[in-house]
Write a structure and sequence with these properties.
The complex is a heterodimer of chains A (about 450) and B (about 550).
Chain A: E1 3-10, H1 29-38, E2 46-49, H2 56-60, E3 64-65, H3 69-72, H4 75-92, E4 96-103, E5 113-114, H5 125-137, E6 142-146, H6 153-158, E7 165-172, E8 196-201, H7 207-225, E9 229-234, H8 251-261, E10 265-268, H9 278-289, H10 310-341, E11 344-353, E12 358-367, E13 375-385, E14 388-397, H11 403-419, E15 424-429, E16 434-437
Chain B: E1 2-7, E2 11-18, E3 21-29, H1 35-50, E4 58-63, H2 65-72, E5 79-83, E6 99-100, E7 102-105, E8 111-116, E9 130-134, H3 142-153, E10 159-161, H4 171-201, E11 208-211, E12 217-219, H5 220-223, H6 233-245, E13 252-257, E14 262-268, E15 271-272, E16 280-281, E17 284-285, E18 293-296, E19 302-306, E20 311-317, H7 331-337, H8 346-354, H9 363-391, H10 397-401, E21 410-414, H11 418-429, E22 433-434, H12 442-449, E23 455-461, E24 466-469, E25 474-477, H13 484-501, E26 509-521, E27 524-536
Parallel strand pairs in B: 1-4, 4-11, 5-6, 5-9, 9-10, 13-21, 21-22
Antiparallel strand pairs in B: 1-2, 2-3, 7-8, 11-12, 13-14, 14-15, 14-18, 16-17, 19-20, 23-24, 23-27, 24-25, 26-27
Helix pairs in contact in B: 1-4, 2-4, 6-12, 7-8, 7-9, 8-9, 9-11
Classes of the chains: A alpha/beta (about 450), B alpha/beta (about 550).
């Protein structure tokens, strides 16, 4: 029998970044208490899954960890990444209609190259799941709606060149919150232009604003894109009690959003109001995704909840206008960008790892090819890592890259190695599903 | 000397144990109209051989009384008063529709809104048993206690509270436990009185104990209060019988192959494995702690039918084997023909197998096929259980990463049809097997041998300065430095008092689990949360030495 919801619940009660860090053992124990006390795991509509342990190959399909996976990726990361794969399998094998990976540690700030932990994230568990879905189930069009209060900059970065992965993130404006990015101009590299949509909201936006944005912009875009698989990066820190951010969304707001969105797979991201928000928001999302009544899930204490002001609503209206304009003009804009780029497109990115205090400088170049999606090279140098200063030169061969581009990618890395100046050399070859050290 | 009684659906068994040996045993038919008759017959069977009535130290009984009452649906009306607060809509989660009471206690046990009985609630109450159950009452039972008082003032019959059922989280489970308890209080009270009366008539004055679903026992006075715990005790009795008769030190699978079903249990470190959350009663999840068991509808009396693809076994039972005068071919007929069993009319058994034969097929070939089919069915369920056990969710990184599959090293068989089937099953699994002598009365042996168990849960929140023992509705103020060790000492003391209060000899307590989380607020450690569960060390009074085995 296909259950309405598969729940991969993994609170990792023996894992923390450090004793007082928001990512500590305590984070999901109140949620665990609430879920068990409510009896959600006993409901016929919900099938609980034990997360599996992700394999090295699953992580390296997405990431290049410098110097090596075992240096920064812990068992906890393998289990939380594995939890998303378990959720994906349950849905793709039709054991359940949808799935929710209620797991930690989170991942949406982790980028393709990882020198350490940033934004509490080491590996990007959603991106790992998406790459797994593509590899294992040949998934075509995938859409991600990131409802965490922080811009999902890691997920954006990893799929910035992929026109088949639509990434939509609404979040508190980067001028007022980590990681500082996530503006509408960041719309994708030329070949994937328009497949990355950022919707920065003003602080104090609440249920009304978020639902208006969803109904008027996100829903129509999703309907137009028609994803084969819809994923929710289900961060919960837009909640009015979250101490790291300043939004006003309630458990009802989140549950109704989950109900409208009807994601195939949801993956927990951030959310650090561990007592006043998470127990209720998670109960709401679980019930909504299982098709059960969630109308009684109301925080017992709503004293901190304030009415939404006109300025937040005005920003929402502006985003709806700009977002519609971007979406409808994306074809034309994409053609212009490609024409302007010519045979390659380069971006330089400073990346700061706030959790670990690492600074990274990257030059990423997408090489275009008339026959295929081309290939990518990344020149990465990091300061302040566990190993001090370290650098890597990397090429990425896309799954659909032609043999010529594959060869060019390897040649680029070999050339860099010959020149010296980097510590490590990798080719992430998606045609072989392999990360090779050169 | 210990007396064990098992009142089963078909037979009432009694055994007397002395120095770890089955001194005498008797098997009589259960008398359904008046259970005492069958009980007395079985008692007479063991007493006449031993004359031991005054030497008995304890009488323990395992009964399907609650199981049968639930199965037949003959339960009295029970009113449920539920205080769910915000969250899942629980109105359809219980065996009877609840009266929803306003109020809320949050996950840390803070009473956010006091519970208040609706004004009309008293109208239908007088004499009716009631259940009071509030979400998070195990973190703070205040609202349940207040409502209990109010209901009694309104003239309610007996009131059963959720927090008294279990100290564990699971509001719906506690409510259902309380419901089935409230619904069977009178029934069990009456039954225990009858049993006591029967014992008295045979001059047995030893204290009476009742078997629980977790394989422990409880004294009559507790059993009369926690009646739902006596649900599903048949398989638990046999598991404790196996513990007494075999005490498997290795990882093992035990099979109790009875008349209509085979009950399968797993063993590790001489202990049966437990189910993760609690038994289901009539499809409703409860807080009744139970062993990790599966039941397959394959037993000696399962009737056989020829199908296109082979032979179907059970699930129906039409009567005893044809070899014993029954109406239809059964598994036992097949065993008899294969000389795996030795009582009954072999010719009738042959005829039974012949009736299932395809043209040209010998009765022996049919018996062979029957045996293989039965073994296949049971082995398939064992494999499924191993898979399920491996997939049981865990919440610690270490438990996921270090998980190993359960790999049995021994097969143990008890019950009437064990001799016929267990060697074949063990062969399939490539494992040695053990069928103890007295395997036929394992249930009664289990009842006689099982030690009393009581599980206690302690919740400590040093940040709030609170420490609570929910089952006792006992709270106390503690300071920031309260430790796990102190918690264990407190809980051990409570278990000792509980044991003494109910006349149980205290022989030590053990920690079932303990966890501690630092509570961090505003970047500082403001205290810790400690959860501890401890129990009276479970087990059996004796393990047979030199008895049984092969």
């Amino acid at each position: 029998m296909t259950a309405p919801l598969g729940l991969v619940f993994f609170p990792a009660v023996d894992w923390m970044i450090s004793e007082t860090h928001p990512e500590r053992q305590e984070r999901l124990i109140y949620t665990y208490d609430q879920i068990v006390e409510e009896g959600l795991l006993d409901l016929a509509e919900i099938r609980e899954y034990k997360p599996r342990v992700a394999a090295r190959r699953d992580i390296e399909r997405t990431h290049i960890v410098v110097p090596d996976l075992k240096d920064i990726v812990t068992d906890a990361h393998l289990v939380s990444a594995g939890g998303t794969l378990t959720a994906a399998d349950a849905v793709m094998k039709r054991e359940v209609k949808r799935a929710f990976a209620l797991v930690r540690p989170p991942g949406h700030h982790a980028m393709r190259v990882a020198h350490g932990i940033r934004g509490f994230c080491t590996v990007n568990i959603e991106a790992i799941m998406i790459d797994y879905l593509r590899k294992t189930y040949n998934a075509g069009r995938i859409a991600v709606v990131d409802t965490d209060v922080h811009h999902g900059d890691g997920t954006q970065e990893i799929f910035y060149h992929d026109p088949d992965t639509l990434f939509i993130s609404f979040h508190q404006d980067g001028h007022t919150l980590y990681p500082g990015s996530g503006f509408m101009e960041e719309a994708g590299s030329p070949y994937a232009f328009g497949a990355n949509i950022n919707l920065p909201l003003l602080p104090e936006t609440g249920d009304r604003g978020v639902h208006l944005l969803f109904d008027e912009l996100i829903r129509p875009i999703l309907d137009d894109f028609q994803p084969d698989i819809l994923i929710n990066s289900a961060g919960q820190d837009n909640h009015y009690t979250d101490m790291l951010a300043s939004m006003q969304v309630t458990a009802q707001g989140y549950a109704r959003l989950a109900d409208k969105l009807k994601a195939d797979i949801a993956v927990l991201e951030g959310g650090y109001s561990i007592e006043a928000a998470l127990p209720y928001v998670n109960t709401g999302i679980v019930l909504a995704m299982a098709g059960l009544d969630y109308s009684h899930v109301i925080e017992p204490d709503q004293r901190e909840l304030r009415a939404e002001g006109n300025h937040t609503t005005a920003r929402v209206a502006q985003l709806i206008r700009d977002g519609r304009a971007l979406w409808s003009a994306r074809g034309k804009l994409k053609a212009e960008k490609i024409a302007k780029a010519g045979s390659s497109w380069t971006r330089k990115k400073p990346i700061y790892y706030d959790t670990d205090g690492i600074r990274e400088m990257q030059t990423e170049t997408a090489f275009y090819c008339p026959k295929c999606p081309g290939y990518l090279t990344i020149d990465s140098s990091a300061w302040g890592s566990y190993f001090g200063e370290q650098s890597a030169f990397i090429a990425v061969v896309w799954a659909a890259s032609c043999p010529d581009c594959g060869k060019k990618a390897y040649d680029a890395v070999l050339r860099a190695k010959k020149q010296g100046g980097h510590n490590y050399f990798f080719v992430q070859d998606k045609t072989k599903d392999l990360l090779e050290r050169i | 000397m210990l007396l064990g009684i098992d009142v089963g659906g078909t037979f009432t068994d009694a055994v007397i144990i002395e120095n770890g040996r089955v001194l005498c045993k008797a098997k009589r038919h259960t008398t359904h109209g008046n259970v005492t008759d069958g009980l007395l017959a079985a008692l007479d069977g063991v007493l006449e051989n031993s004359g031991a009535a005054d030497k008995l130290k304890r009488a323990a009984i395992s009964t399907t009384l609650v199981t049968n009452a639930v199965a037949t649906g003959r339960l009295p009306e029970v009113k449920i008063f539920a205080v769910p607060g915000p969250g899942f809509d629980c109105r359809k989660a219980f065996p009877a529709p609840p009266v929803i009471v306003e109020g809320y206690t949050d996950h840390r046990g803070q009473n956010v809104r006091h519970a208040k009985l609706p004004s009309a609630a008293g109208d239908f109450l007088p004499g009716v048993p009631a259940v009071v159950s509030a979400k998070f009452s195990v973190r703070n039972p205040e609202s349940e206690l207040a409502l209990e008082k109010e209901l009694k003032a309104h003239g309610a019959g007996k009131v059963v509270t959720g927090h008294s059922m279990s100290g564990l989280l699971g509001f719906i489970r506690r409510t259902n436990s309380a419901y089935y308890t409230a619904a069977t209080l009178d029934l069990c009270g009456g039954f225990f009185a009858l049993v006591r009366e029967g014992l008295k008539r045979r001059a047995i004055n030893a204290p009476l104990y009742v078997l629980k679903a977790d394989g422990g026992t409880m004294p009559e006075n507790l059993a009369a209060r926690y009646t739902a715990e006596t649900y599903f005790t048949g398989p638990a009795a046999s598991v404790m019988g196996i513990k007494a008769l075999v005490n498997p030190g290795r990882r093992a699978v035990s099979l109790d192959i009875g008349g209509t079903t085979t009950d399968i249990a797993f063993w590790e470190n001489s202990r049966p494995l437990f189910g993760k959350r609690g038994a289901k009663i009539n499809g409703y999840p409860t807080a009744v702690r139970a062993l990790h068991l599966s039941s397959v509808p394959v037993g000696g009396d399962s009737c056989l039918t020829r199908t296109e693809s082979g032979i179907a076994i059970g699930p129906r039972r039409m009567g005893p084997a044809m070899a014993l005068g029954g109406p239809a071919p059964t598994l036992t007929d097949a065993f008899l023909l294969l000389r795996l069993d030795d009582f009954g009319d072999a010719e009738k058994a042959r005829a039974a197998m012949h009736s299932l034969a395809r043209p040209g097929e010998t009765p022996e070939a049919v018996a062979d096929e029957v045996m293989r089919t039965a073994a296949d069915k049971i082995v398939a369920v064992i494999m499924e259980m191993i898979e399920e056990y491996a997939l049981e969710p865990v919440y610690r990184v270490e438990d996921v990463v270090k998980a190993r599959k359960f790999a049995p090293e021994l097969v143990i068989g008890v019950g009437g049809a064990a001799k016929g089937l267990v060697p074949e099953i063990a062969g399939r699994l490539g494992l040695p097997f053990d069928i103890p002598a007295d395997a036929l009365v394992a249930n009664a042996v289990g009842a006689a041998a099982a030690r009393p168990t009581i599980l206690g849960v302690l919740r400590v929140d040093t940040a709030l300065g609170s420490c609570i023992l929910p089952q006792a509705a006992q709270g106390m103020k503690i300071d920031r430095n309260f430790s796990v060790r102190e918690g264990e000492r407190l809980l051990t003391e409570w278990l000792r008092r509980e044991a003494e209060r109910s006349g149980v000899e205290f022989h030590g307590a053990e920690t079932v689990w303990r966890e501690e989380f630092p509570v961090i607020r505003d970047g500082w450690r403001s205290g810790s949360i400690i959860n501890i569960a401890m129990q009276l060390t479970p087990g059996v009074f004796f393990t047979a030495k030199g008895v049984g085995g092969q």
